[in-house]
């Protein structure tokens, strides 16, 4: 006689998911104390076996009479037949491995526990480089798993990008090339005068560098010789405040604080921010992607979708949707495909009358968009600018 205590709502929830996915068998990932909660809420006879990360348990049988196997046995399964219910607290790590093996979240596997905070990998085994400008600026290396922060360089640093031999960063006038161990092997002052370098990108053997002080995008070859440039306004003063660049295919995307060149009246015309697209080959303008933005920074394209910060709205946006709002000055975006990394600076601007409070922390937010969880790694600086995965 089956004397299990049935959680009907929970049983029906998983039954519907499994039925919708047209699955015939269930595998449980995790043999710990939570296994029994799931077992009691599933139809009898559906569980094929249990897998566990602890190799000492392989070959044993659970108290429910189910064999425990090596997770690698999932590789030989027909993905169309089995559905995986994860009961382990290492959900993020397990889901990452299952995705690498070709299983799909919510279609082939889900987190199985109810009324339990969703475990996420907000301490990922990742390293990032962060550029910071202004007071206490520099280039920082952060191990996100251990929250270990190392200051590699001091100074007023802005743009950062990958290059074949390592990394490239810029301060207000000089370009620095770093090897893969973060050692500077070349530096060059690009031009005399107040050019105020900001965003940088590297593509097809060329450096694309934003000269904010002259409203200019300049393209340099690998020898750091000028190939071409375009001025969006007259070059004797900062009118547009172009601040970042992203290259995708044959297009260049620029974020700027003012499309009309109104930075002299920035506090009264702060909704003139824009993102524009240029032709990469000719640098000719193609179109205005976004208008009427409030201090846009950090334009990025991931999988064909546009991301950017509206810094004075304290948010990060995906196309026209607000992805997250931190209540602080946002600048800097990176992603590994699962988690996002967003920068926040100490607030130093004039507050709108509609703002009730503002965060004065500086650091990196680690954001899991699927599970809507986040945590912050604080940095001893005032202004975060760019973020780059190592």
Envelope shape: elongated
Spell out the CATH superfamily of the largest domain: TolB, C-terminal domain
Number of strands: 29
> What's the assembly state of these chains?
single chain
Distance between the termini: 57 Å
Helix content: under 10%
Which structural class do you get from the secondary structure elements? mainly beta
What name does CATH use for the topology of the largest domain?
A: Neuraminidase
Lateral strand order in the biggest sheet? 3-2-1-4-5
Based on the structure given, which CATH architecture of the largest domain is correct?
6 Propeller
Please work out how many helical segments DSSP would assign.
Answer: 3
Instruction: Give unreliable regions as ranges.
Output: 1-8
Pfam family, one: DUF4915
Domain Conserved hypothetical protein CHP03032: 192-350
Task: Give structural notes.
The chain is mainly β. It folds into two domains: 104 residues, Rossmann fold, CATH 3.40.50.20; 263 residues, TolB, C-terminal domain (Neuraminidase, 6 Propeller), CATH 2.120.10.30. 7% of the residues lie in helices and 43% in strands. The chain is built from three helices and 29 strands. The protein has a five-stranded parallel sheet.
Task: Provide the fold topology.
Layout: H1 8-20, E1 25-29, H2 35-39, E2 47-51, E3 68-69, E4 82-86, H3 91-100, E5 109-111, E6 127-133, E7 138-143, E8 148-154, E9 160-163, E10 166-170, E11 174-179, E12 184-189, E13 197-203, E14 206-211, E15 216-221, E16 226-231, E17 242-248, E18 251-256, E19 273-279, E20 285-293, E21 296-302, E22 305-310, E23 315-318, E24 321-325, E25 329-335, E26 340-345, E27 363-368, E28 373-378, E29 383-389
Parallel strand pairs: 1-2, 1-4, 2-3, 4-5
Antiparallel strand pairs: 6-7, 6-29, 7-8, 9-10, 10-11, 11-12, 13-14, 14-15, 15-16, 17-18, 18-19, 19-20, 21-22, 22-23, 23-24, 25-26, 26-27, 27-28
